[in-house]
Amino acid sequence: MGLDGEVQKAQRAAEASEEPGQRPPTIFSKIIDRTIRADILYEDDKCLAFRDVAPQAPVHFLVIPKHPIPRLSRVAAGDAELLGHLLVVASQTAKVEGLVDGYRVVINDGKRGSQSVYHLHLHVLGGRQMGWPPG
C-alpha cells in the first residue's frame, strides 16, 4: 500500500476511534484473544510480539501490550513500566531475529502520525539499511 493509502487508512481509523460509545475490538485485541491467527515470536503476561502481515522490511514485527492503550499520546505515568517492558521485548526479539547491525523502532500516533490501529504498537524494522529522514 502506498503512502496515500496508508494516510487514508489512518484517517478512517482515527474517525472510528473518535466515535462515541464502545470501541469495536481492534485487530490486535483479536490476535491477543486468538480469534485472528498471527506468527507469534514472543509472548508473556504483559505483551505479544508477532510478524507484520504486510512487512516493510526483510524483518518487520510488532510488539503490543496486552492491556490496550489506544495511543502513545494517551499513556499515563502508571504505564511507564509497561512501556519500558515493550522496548526490552523489542530489543530481545530483534536479537533473536538476527538484527545485530541495527534496526528501527517506530510508533505511529494519531491521524497525522498515520496510526491505523488504535492499540499502541511498536514496529521493529530491520534487515536492510534504513533511510533518513523516515517519512
UniProtKB/TrEMBL annotation:
The gene is HINT2. It catalyses: adenosine 5'-phosphoramidate + H2O = NH4(+) + AMP. It comes from the Eukaryota. Residues 27-135 form the HIT domain. SUPFAM superfamilies: HIT-like. PANTHER family: HISTIDINE TRIAD HIT PROTEIN. This is Histidine triad nucleotide binding protein 2. Belongs to the HINT family. A motif (Histidine triad motif) lies at residues 119-123. The active site is at H121 (tele-amp-histidine intermediate). Gene3D superfamilies: HIT-like. GO terms for molecular function: catalytic activity. Residues 1-25 are annotated as: Disordered. Pfam families: HIT (PF01230).
